[in-house]
Amino acid sequence: MYEQIVVGTDGSAGASVAVDAAIELARLCGARLHVVHAHKVMTSYLTTAPEIAISPTDIMEANDAIHAEGERICEQVVARADRAGVQTETHCVGGNAADALIRVATDAGADLVVLGNRGMTGARRFVLGSVPNAVSHHCGSSLLIIDTTKART
Asked: Do residues 56 and 49 make contact, with C-beta atoms less than 8 angstroms apart?
């Protein structure tokens, strides 16, 4: 049914629910799982670093630490997927989460993108969060939005 599945994670409890669903789908389908973690990159501060009394080296070190944390989050998912017998590929990228998910899904030829709904309740449940909303409008793959509300209670 699915051969390439993309899942986004920020390492949160809600994202973990979506990751578990993606791992199980990949296991059942024999699909490869692409794990995506997007993180902010502080490039805009490099030009203003002297004015705000931060050295460019400090900014670059902060970017490296943020990227390393993203890699750690991805590796945790890989370990979980390995236990389920699912082949994985990680994509830890700087930038906007929706853009990263769409780019990885396109590059991987993904059949499915799995995302959490960010635990929205009440009136907000009728409007998707910014990442699921953007992915639903711009991604050429099927999209599965997992209800992650229980992970936030």
From this structure: yes
Per-residue model confidence (pLDDT) at position 15: 93
In Å, what is the CA distance from 139 to each residue of 5, 47, 65, 95, 111?
13, 33, 30, 17, 11
Contacts by residues 59-62 (CB-CB < 8 Å, ≥ 24 positions apart):
none
Q: Compute the C-alpha angle 152/102/92, nearest 5°.
A: 70
Residues 74 and 9: their CA atoms lie apart, in Å, by: 8
Q: Above 70 in pLDDT, residue 45?
A: no
Give yes or no for residue 11 having a pLDDT over 90: yes
Three-state SS string over 61-114 comes to HHHHHHHHHHHHHHHHHHHHHHHCCCCEEEEEEECCHHHHHHHHHHHHCCCEEE
For the entire predicted model, the pTM comes to 0.84
The answer on pLDDT for 20 being more than 50 is: yes
**87-to-13, 67, 135 alpha-carbon distances in Å:** 22, 22, 24
